[in-house]
Amino acid sequence: MKLNELIIIISNQLGEQINQSMLAESLGITRQTVSNRIKNDSEVTVSELNKAEEYFKIKLFSQNKNSLDESVTYIDYYTDVFASCGNGSIVFSSEKKKLPIATTMIQGYSKHKLYSMINATGNSMAPTIDNGDKLIVEHWNGEQIQDNKVYVFCYNNEFFVKRLSKNIDEIIIKSDNPEYRARTISSKSFNDLILIGKIVSVIKALD
């Protein structure tokens, strides 16, 4: 594992972004050393993993630290895809990169499921999801909508993050922010809604 990957995993566990200086302090080295090692793709030692766990008071891996395949998964992070927690956000591009994510951060994680990460914008789902948060999505695979779970979906060419509930003849779209009223999609418009997936983790942005 590389140092830059360790920063991402620790940030995921803490629910907030850590920087190179914080990692350096946890490992007992200088920030410049961390920066140089990141540039050189330096590997993290088991001893350093232990130091990071103790400093941040987290458990990085549930298995042996030399067996990361069951403790970390790599998912696609769509850096320019924004799902709106408000009035909708059109996707202009779909550039992506692979990010390591601790599987303990993903609710109901399964190696047989497909996950990706996108950005949230807007405040209609506050305080559950705030503007700038990163969202891990479990991709939809034909399952029924689970009432009151948070989903990302596309409707009228715009992406939204909302709580969904399904009745016989309508889908109810709800926001966590009480300033936003609930909306409905009638059965005749069901085919216009494209369900992308369920939100299974929220990585909070720095204030």
What's the CATH first level of the largest domain? Answer: Mainly Beta
> How much of the polypeptide forms β-strand, as a percent range?
25-35%
CATH topology of the largest domain: Umud Fragment, subunit A
Question: How many strands appear in the DSSP assignment?
Answer: 9
How is the main sheet built? 9 strands, mixed
Quickly count the helices: 4
The coarse overall form would be elongated
Offer a concise description of the structure:
Helices cover 19% and strands 33% of the residues. It is α+β, with helices and mostly antiparallel strands.
Give a description of the structure.
It is a single chain. This protein has 207 residues and is α+β, with helices and mostly antiparallel strands. The protein folds into two domains: 65 residues, 434 Repressor (Amino-terminal Domain); 133 residues, Umud Fragment, subunit A (Ribbon), CATH 2.10.109. 19% of the residues lie in helices and 33% in strands. It contains four helices and nine strands; from the N terminus they run H-H-H-H-E-E-E-E-E-E-E-E-E. The protein has a nine-stranded mixed β-sheet with strand order 2-1-3-4-9-5-6-7-8, with helices on one face. Helix 2 packs across helix 3. It is elongated and about 60 Å long.
